[in-house]
Amino acid sequence: MKGRFIAFEGCEGAGKSTQMRLLSEYLTSRGIPHILTREPGGGQISEAIRKIILDGKNSEMTDECEALLYAAARAQHLSDTVVPALERGDTVLCDRYIFSSFAYQGYGRGLPLSFLKEINAFAVEGHMPDATLFLDIPSSRAFERKHGADPDDRMEQAGEAFHRRVYEGYKALLQEYPDRLFAIDCSGTKYETSARIAEFLRGRGLIG
Ligand code: TYD
Predict the structure, then answer these.
(1) What is the set of domains in the chain, with CATH numbers?
(2) CB of 151 within 8 A of CB of 55?
(3) Model confidence at 12, in pLDDT bands (50, 70, 90)?
(4) Which of 131, 156, 161, 208 is 20 to 30 A from 144 (CA-CA)?
């Protein structure tokens, strides 16, 4: 693969989309070809799966079904969007990836991590980001920034205790994957965070 693969993680409202947009502007200013994409989604079939997963009406969905749908959307998104972009030599900026499944379905829902590792290994066939950035702000502050949970979003409706477990889950994952998952301090302004991200990626030789 010629391109660089960079994923962003964080709790709801951590500012991933803003930071991805700012990084995209930076890459454009340096003439670095790139795409912005997201999970679940980023392609026709995976966006259709996204609708099913997030639909507030699907309250009967089992945790197992949810985990498999996220993995299914990931497999399709890789094949439709991510791998072709990496092969072209584009940098891929992806809003969420495999660690979301570990944090939300594993630590949040309480599914065994061994099961999540297995289904996701099958889904991604070895395609792992060069770096995954965890935008570190606690779930409670993130929700404040978002002005509360969206009533039509099944995941946002999962409750405060769930989202606290997700945040703690990311903290545990940072310990488990120190060479894959990196925390970015988001306590300053969005421009300070953006500068930290660019500095981190430049330091690892991932952006010019
Ligand atoms: P996202 O669009 O990033 O939501 P937000 O911008 O509000 O953070 O992600 C959609 C939801 O899906 C979000 O609640 C996190 C959840 N999710 C999982 O639970 N597991 C996964 O593997 C992925 C990719 C997302």
Answers:
(1) 5-203 (3.40.50.300)
(2) no
(3) confident
(4) 131
Rounded distance between C-alpha atoms, residue 38 and residue 187, angstroms: 24
pLDDT of 144 above 80: no
Angle (CA) 15 21 135, round 5° = 30
Give the residues surrounding ligand 1 with Cβ less than 6 Å away: 12, 38-40, 70, 95-96, 100-101, 104-105, 155
53-68 tens-digit pLDDT: 999 999 999 999 999 9
Which residue matches tokens 């439709």? 80
CB 1 within 8 A of CB 86: yes
Distance from C-alpha of 208 to C-alpha of 200, rounded to nearest angstrom: 12
How much distance in Å is there from the Cα of 86 to the middle of ligand 1? Answer: 23
- Categorize the per-residue pLDDT at 151 as very low, low, confident or very high, splitting at 50, 70 and 90: confident
Each residue's pLDDT tens digit, 21-56:
999 999 999 999 999 999 999 999 999 999 999 999
Q: Which residue has the tokens 């952006």?
A: 207
Q: How far apart are CA 195 and CA 207, in angstroms?
A: 13
Token look-up 């499944």 returns 101
Mean per-residue pLDDT over the chain, rounded: 94
CA of 11 to the centre of ligand 1 (A): 8
